[in-house]
Write a structure and sequence with these properties.
It contains 8 helices and 8 strands; from the N terminus they run βαβαβαβααββαβαβα. An 8-stranded parallel barrel has the order 1-2-3-4-5-6-7-8. It is globular. α1 runs parallel beside α2 (47-54). It has helices spanning 14-25, 47-54, 81-84, 96-101, 106-118, 157-165, 186-190, 207-218; strands at 2-7, 36-41, 60-64, 90-93, 122-127, 140-143, 174-178, 197-200. Bound molecules: 2-phosphoglycolic acid (PGA). Residues 7, 144, 149-150, 178-181, 199-203 line the site of 2-phosphoglycolic acid.
Length: 219
């Protein structure tokens, strides 16, 4: 099974999301066999719309880009697991942008990770290097070296596999790579058995580019 995850970050207006969905939902996904899972992580305001529009496609699941470390309640402005529980199947936790701009520490991230898992949301735990601690119950670990994110400097397979060797997690954990993945380099990663999937930022903003990446994963 390969996982192709779109991370739109804080991009797109409502009308741009509608356009993306209109284009993407017309694409032929019939080539997909059961070994491919597409996960789309839009900004919070668009989660329901994306879910509704793509609900007929069983290969597509919805994820959030984060969750609050409060479970629910009087935390104005937060988006809690309770809010997300009927909406998403997955949540990104610990993206390097959260760690850097929002100063999210390992303690906060572990709290988010546990909340997600305990509420039936599968956490996709992001790490920047082998130095980041991985929670014990991890299902998905996404390795994203900071210098490769949004720079066009995607990491070589050799280097990724070297990092993977230094990680301590069970062999059942799905190992995802992210960092300047696009429609031209995705098959290079997907061909390798050690890479279970890709986390795609910039290239997922275009339905055409994202579809090309999915096509390569399905071929
Ligand atoms: P990028 O972002 O594909 O634009 O490098 C990946 C990510 O940050 O998840």
């Amino acid at each position: 099974m390969k996982y192709i995850i779109a991370n739109w970050k804080a991009n797109k207006t409502l009308s741009e999301v509608k356009t993306w969905l209109n284009v993407f939902s017309k694409k032929d996904l019939s080539f997909i066999k059961s070994e491919l899972q597409i996960i789309i992580c839009p900004p919070y305001p668009f989660l329901s719309l994306v879910k509704e529009k793509l609900q007929d496609c069983s290969y597509v699941k919805i994820g959030s880009q984060d969750i609050s470390f409060f479970e629910k309640g009087a935390y104005t402005g937060e988006v809690s697991v309770e809010n997300l529980s009927d909406l998403v199947d997955y949540a990104l936790i610990g993206h390097s942008e959260r760690r850097y701009y929002f100063e999210e520490t390992a303690r906060i991230l572990f709290q988010k990770f546990n909340l997600a898992l305990d509420n039936n949301i599968k956490p996709i735990f992001c790490i920047r290097s082998a130095a980041d601690i991985i929670p014990e119950r991890s299902i998905f670990v996404a390795y994203e070296p900071v210098y490769a994110i949004g720079t066009g400097r995607n990491e070589s397979l050799d280097q990724i596999l070297k990092v993977k060797k230094n990680l301590s997690f069970s062999k059942d954990v799905k190992f995802i790579y992210g960092g300047s993945v696009n429609e031209n380099n995705s098959s290079y990663y997907l061909k390798n058995q050690e890479i279970d999937g890709l986390l795609v930022g910039g290239a997922s903003l275009s339905p055409e580019k994202f579809y090309k990446i999915i096509k390569q994963a399905g071929d």
